[in-house]
């Protein structure tokens, strides 16, 4: 509601639209690489049969193909061992046709994610999860790769003209893939960052007292429709990273995927909001494509 009592509806931060704009820019860089005899190649490795992960991996492969890149989608059985996965990564590290490697998370319980990630050549770690790239990101050093989801959020905000400098960014969630790097990116003394950052998590007491202070609220807990309007400041920008499955007998698969934000209600209070699906997801994938193109460009840079 504004000061006159009129119900406002938030501007939609359309991730699909933004991703297609960025894809167009990538096509030009890919064409230039082709002229130099290089086709960017991305290998995506999945271990196990988690249906959501299978879907994500297929979409990443499709995005790569649509851009005219080489896509290798490697779907390994649940029984695939950590040693076999490390061996596969070594092969991909050595393969000159592959410029980017992503190992889809979560991995089955018998595989330690940090051990596996640390085996990826940092120059091919387009997921930005290798300790070398995490360190570069944290110290604000160029030359690494920024993790896809947090950087996708940063780009979505920046290209929609949403200033972060001096703003209070409140992040709910502290995962290695989203929450922690999101905080690291937003706190940098750099363009499209320079925010005051608060990170909330499962041990935070009175979470709403923090979320209500947010100029920009980033929800990344993976709890369906957790963020309600009373947890959001009037006019805040709300970014929904979460994906959860909820039962829905009317949906073709018997379930549907929903975000962490109660979108229909929160959009009446926010000034801008990401839809979910169609917000952060396409941005994550286009940054993965962008990092792969960057890896290919760096592979021939003198
Ligand atoms: N699972 C969900 N998001 C991601 C991501 O950005 N990278 C990887 N490797 N796995 C994920």
Describe the overall structure:
The chain is α/β, with parallel strands linked by helices. The chain folds into 2 domains: 37-123, Leucine Dehydrogenase, chain A, domain 1 (Rossmann fold, 3-Layer(aba) Sandwich); 147-281, NAD(P)-binding Rossmann-like Domain (Rossmann fold). 38% of the residues lie in helices and 16% in strands. The chain has 10 helices and 11 strands. The chain has a 6-stranded parallel beta sheet. A 3-stranded parallel beta sheet has the order 3-2-4, with helices on both faces. A two-stranded antiparallel ribbon has the order 9-10. Strand 2, helix 2 and strand 3 (70-76) form a beta-alpha-beta unit. Helix 1 (15-35) runs parallel beside helix 10, helix 2 crosses helix 10 and helix 6 (148-159) crosses helix 10 (280-300). The longest helix is centred in the first third of the chain and has 21 residues, at 15-35. The protein is globular. Bound molecules: guanine. Residues 102-105, 127, 148-149, 177, 284 line the site of guanine.
Report, as a whole number of angstroms, the end-to-end distance.
56 Å
**In terms of structural class, how would the helical and strand content be classed?**
alpha/beta
Q: Mind telling me the CATH class of the largest domain?
A: Alpha Beta
Oligomer classification = single chain
Helix content: 25-40%
List the helices and strands and how they pair.
Elements: E1 11-12, H1 15-35, E2 41-47, H2 51-66, E3 70-76, H3 82-94, E4 100-103, H4 113-117, H5 131-138, H6 148-159, E5 168-172, H7 179-187, E6 196-200, H8 207-211, E7 216-219, E8 237-240, E9 244-247, E10 255-258, H9 263-266, E11 272-273, H10 280-300
Parallel strand pairs: 1-11, 2-3, 2-4, 5-6, 5-7, 7-8, 8-11
Antiparallel strand pairs: 9-10
Helix pairs in contact: 1-10, 2-10, 6-7, 6-10
Bound molecules: guanine.
């Amino acid at each position: 509601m504004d000061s006159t009592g009129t119900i406002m509806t938030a501007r939609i931060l359309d991730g699909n639209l933004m991703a297609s704009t960025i894809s167009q820019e990538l096509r030009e860089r890919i064409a230039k690489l082709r002229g130099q005899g290089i086709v960017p190649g991305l290998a995506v490795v999945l271990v196990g049969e988690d249906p959501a992960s299978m879907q994500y991996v297929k979409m990443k492969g499709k995005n790569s193909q649509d851009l005219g890149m080489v896509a290798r989608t490697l779907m390994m059985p649940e029984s695939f061992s950590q040693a076999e996965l490390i061996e596969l990564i070594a092969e991909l590290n050595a393969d000159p046709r592959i410029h980017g490697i992503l190992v889809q998370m979560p991995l089955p319980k018998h595989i330690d994610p940090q051990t596996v990630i640390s085996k990826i050549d940092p120059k091919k770690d387009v997921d930005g999860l290798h300790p070398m790239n995490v360190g570069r990101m944290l110290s604000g050093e160029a030359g690494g790769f920024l993790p896809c989801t947090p950087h996708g959020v940063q780009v979505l905000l920046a290209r929609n003209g949403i200033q972060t400098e001096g703003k209070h960014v409140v992040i709910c969630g502290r995962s290695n893939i989203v929450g922690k790097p999101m905080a690291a990116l937003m706190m940098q003394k750099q363009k499209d960052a320079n925010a005051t950052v608060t990170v909330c998590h499962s041990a935070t007491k009175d979470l709403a007292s923090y979320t209500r202070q947010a100029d920009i609220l980033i929800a990344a807990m993976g709890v369906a429709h957790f963020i309600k309007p009373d947890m959001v400041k009037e006019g805040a920008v709300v970014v929904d990273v979460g994906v959860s499955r909820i039962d829905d007998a009317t949906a073709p698969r018997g379930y549907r995927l929903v975000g962490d934000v109660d979108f229909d209600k929160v959009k009446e209070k926010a000034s801008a909001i990401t839809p979910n699906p169609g917000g952060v997801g396409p941005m994550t994938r286009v940054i993965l494509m962008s990092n792969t193109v960057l890896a290919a460009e760096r592979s021939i840079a003198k």
